[in-house]
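Training component of the fellowship. As part of building independent skills, the fellow (R.M.) carried out the full modelling exercise for a liganded target. The chosen ligand was L-homoserine. The inputs are recorded below so that the supervisory panel can assess the work.
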Amino acid sequence: MDIAILGYGTVGSGTVNVLTRNRELIAEDSGEVLRIKAILDLKDFPGDPYEERIVHQFEDIVNDPTIEVVAETMGGLHPAFEYVSKLLEAGKSVVTSNKDLVAAYGEQLLEIAAAHAVDFFYEASVGGGIPIMRMINECMIQERIYEIMAILNGTTNYILTEMEEEGASFEEALEDAQELGYAEQNPESDVEGMDPARKLAILSTHAFCVDVDWTQIERRGITHITPDDIAIAKAIDHHIKLVARSRMVGSRLFASVEPMLLPEDHKLAQIEDVYNSIMIKGNMLDDITVQGKGAGSLPTGSAVAADLIMAAINKKDHVTSTTYHEYAKVKPESFSSLGQTYMLRTDKSVSMPQEGIISGIQVDHIHAYFTKQLKSQELRDLIQQLEIRGVQVLSCLVMEQEDLSVNR
Ligand code: HSE
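Fellow's submitted model of the complex:
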């Protein structure tokens, strides 16, 4: 079957690599031979094995009736949205790694795909090489999923690991992540938590069957994490991770993306470098955790290739696995309204007792205090009381605590 690829960057070239290097195996396993007929890119690639297949006009792909399945790996919202819509309307199945696109227009594109009896798959948009979408949509179709806790951004996990293990500065670690092809074009999306918030919204929509707007998810990034925070985490056998969490409690959705202190024995605390991990809780199977490389050319290309193969098989069989559901919109609420425990790093020692604080620690010149479970207003009051006493809170990190939900 003839296929095409939009965008020959990190993910597009990874996809081509996977399809080329594993061509025979794919043909044997799936019965499909995928021929890359065209690759759309602005640039030329002199000397590249696919040099002759590079095209610069989208029309060369959308108007070619022999191309049946297309991978969109360009990234960004526009013209990705217009291209994908036109391809679906032209009766071609489309797969994408573009989480910005899926988080913003996923519902609309699924509706167009369903109306034209073609597939729209986006396995690679969440968790890089981890087959999480298929796991939720197919393997967990029988489950009432009520909680997700995950590391969904490879760049920030890489940065935090480098800061913790190598003592690297934030800037150095980010530069490495960019060179390795993990970071977004604008890494603000990684380090400020927009990228994992988009992925959390996509996962939550599928897991809980609700329509989640990623922009409404409470979000904090990792730019304010300092070596002093890492020193405190180490002293209490914890790791700082950028955690994406969502939980359904009745018809209420709680969701956040923020750095958290996780105890050494927590499954997500062990996840290092560019790896992502996703813990899902269902009412029957209890919990399940998967992990794998969350970014990078080949892992993400592998997930795109899997979608291409599935879409090609469906095309050949004249069936589609894509279904469209109009889910009710749910506004995500903050976990802080449920009550959480915190680590407060301060500029000087706090004389005890202090209402709200259970214990404290000093590591060299660094002072940190651990709170009892506080709701958001109680936390604000505590910080204000400390300020009145002349103590400044330099950082405030949520600490992982046992699941308090009762929604099983
Ligand atoms: N910038 C993203 C990350 C790429 O670091 O996870 C994969 O979505």
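The panel noted the following from the submitted structure. The two ends are 46 Å apart (CA to CA). Residues 297-317 form the longest helix (21 residues).
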